[in-house]
Design brief:
This protein is mostly helical. It has 4 helices and 3 strands, in the order ααββαβα. The chain has a domain at 37-87. It has a 3-stranded antiparallel sheet with strand order 2-1-3. The longest helix has 12 residues, at 12-23. The radius of gyration is 22 Å and the shape is elongated. InterPro entries: MBS1/2-like. Its main location: cytoplasm. It is found in: Cytoplasm; Nucleus. Residues 1-11 have a biased composition (Basic residues).
């Protein structure tokens, strides 16, 4: 005998949200580390606004930010700070030993 509960069907919006969450890079893991360092595909925060230090992934986004936030200051691409050219990817520090399971480094 079946109950009167709501039938278990998924909406197209819910399925699309799950697919988006599963396929979009949210910045974690090895792919996120490579993306943050800017080695592959330029990374997310490539340019920094010299006025307010806000970051943007490309020149078009930075121009939109500049026109919206700093309308009285003329836009000059040469003043933008390229974070990938300035910040070198940090070398991983070697703490010695292999990484273990959580709680295995008991003292």
């Amino acid at each position: 005998m079946t109950g009167k509960a709501k039938p278990k069907k998924h909406t197209a919006k819910e399925i699309a949200a799950k697919v988006d969450a599963a396929t979009t890079n949210r910045g974690g893991g090895k792919a996120g580390k490579a993306d943050r360092s800017g080695i592959e595909k330029g990374g997310h925060a490539k340019y920094e606004c010299p006025n307010c230090k806000t970051t943007a992934p490309d020149l078009k986004s930075m121009q939109i930010h500049h026109d919206a936030r700093h309308p009285k200051i003329p836009y000059d691409e040469s003043k933008l700070i390229n974070l990938h050219a300035v910040l070198e990817p940090a070398e991983p520090s070697s703490k010695g030993g292999r990484p273990g399971v959580r709680g295995s480094h008991k003292k």
